[in-house]
């Protein structure tokens, strides 16, 4: 599955890094790609990274994005189209700052774009915007989804038509500030700061048929080890940080996520969409740049991972999206992906 072309070969010759794949687009910086197949075509919903001059910090203030562009392509390796601005922060009534990693779902002729954004009090919540076209433009609802918080929504529709949203991220994503169920502005800037206690879990909520509200309580998408014990706060190689995704393979639910400060993509497998998920390993080694964020799709019988690195800019907040193959092994694992050598 390793793709090496003449450009990457010449990078090796010049002593530079060899990349498994090349940026899908270089006219704008893009990150956090959520890919979907709609009407036989691949649509990618990324963050749109920009230089806003804010110094890098642990809060992620340097990720100061202001709009979304949707990308599409007819096939893997085909021409990539940038459909222009699909949603602008100025058109979101509750907006404060920072449009982070979005995702999209489709139901009954409407596309729903879910996006994390800080409100005017600098608290992340998740908004929803709709369009009749997968490439937008999207129109935002006047308020965030009631009961939503933190970042990185990933939406998954199961075979029975039920749609679930996985969301959350620690550190700058503020998940740790919701540990008591309401926002604590003076809460920790990182995590629970309790190494021997269970780590914070990603959240999961079923969506109502209107796709704009949670149906019932927000639950933990719990990650446990093979003995049934929760992953602990100190276990930075395995605990959830941000960037979740769900895909179903051979009847099992594969919950995949970023471990953040250890820069790995990890996975855990469950029998139900809401978990619990048993930790199964890592499947992608660190990319260039601090963040690692992915999505997984199947098209024409093959599986692909969309991800980002910083090949074009060398800067953590100016990323570029990429795609490469992902392989499930016969014993139910995901084969390790090495983004660089
Ligand atoms: O793009 C901003 C944030 O960086 C995302 O929400 C995280 O997943 C990380 O990629």
TrEMBL record:
Record-given protein name: Alpha-N-arabinofuranosidase
Keywords in alphabetical order: Carbohydrate metabolism, Glycosidase, Hydrolase, Polysaccharide degradation, Signal, Xylan degradation
InterPro entries in the cross-refs: Glyco_hydro_43 (IPR006710), Glyco_hydro_beta-prop_sf (IPR023296), Glycosyl_Hydrlase_43_Enz (IPR052176)
Species of origin: Mucilaginibacter terrae
Protein family membership: Belongs to the glycosyl hydrolase 43 family.
Keyword Signal: yes
A Pfam family recorded for this sequence: Glyco_hydro_43
Cell division found in the keyword field: no
Domain of life the protein comes from: Bacteria
């Amino acid at each position: 599955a390793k793709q090496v072309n003449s450009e990457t070969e010449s990078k090796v010759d010049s002593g530079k890094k060899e990349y498994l794949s090349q940026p899908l687009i270089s006219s704008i910086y893009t990150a956090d790609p959520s890919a979907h197949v709609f009407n036989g075509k691949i649509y990618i919903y990324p963050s749109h990274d920009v230089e806003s001059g804010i110094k890098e910090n642990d809060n992620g203030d340097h990720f100061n994005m202001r709009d979304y562009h949707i990308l599409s392509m007819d096939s893997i390796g085909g021409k990539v189209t940038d459909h222009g601005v699909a949603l602008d922060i100025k058109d979101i009534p509750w907006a404060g700052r920072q449009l982070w990693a979005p995702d999209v779902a489709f139901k009954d002729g409407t596309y729903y774009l879910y996006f994390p954004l800080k409100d005017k009090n600098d608290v992340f919540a998740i908004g929803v915007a709709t369009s009749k076209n997968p490439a937008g433009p999207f129109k935002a609802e006047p308020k965030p989804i009631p009961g939503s918080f933190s970042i990185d929504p990933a939406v998954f529709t199961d075979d029975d038509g039920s749609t679930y949203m996985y969301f959350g991220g620690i550190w700058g994503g503020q998940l740790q500030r919701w540990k008591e169920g309401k926002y604590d502005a003076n809460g920790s800037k990182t995590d629970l700061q309790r190494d021997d206690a269970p780590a914070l879990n990603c959240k999961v909520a079923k969506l109502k048929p209107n796709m704009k509200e949670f149906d019932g309580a927000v639950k933990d998408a719990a990650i446990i080890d093979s003995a049934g014990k929760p992953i602990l706060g100190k276990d930075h190689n395995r605990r959830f940080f941000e960037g979740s995704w769900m895909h179903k393979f051979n009847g099992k639910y594969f919950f995949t996520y970023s471990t953040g400060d250890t820069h790995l993509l990890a996975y855990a497998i469950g029998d139900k969409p809401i978990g619990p998920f048993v930790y199964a390993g890592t499947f992608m080694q660190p990319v260039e740049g601090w963040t690692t964020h992915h999505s997984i799709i199947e098209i024409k019988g093959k599986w692909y991972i969309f991800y980002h690195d910083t090949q074009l800019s060398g800067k953590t907040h100016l990323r570029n999206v990429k795609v490469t193959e992902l392989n499930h092994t016969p014993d139910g694992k995901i084969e390790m992906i090495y983004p660089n050598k």
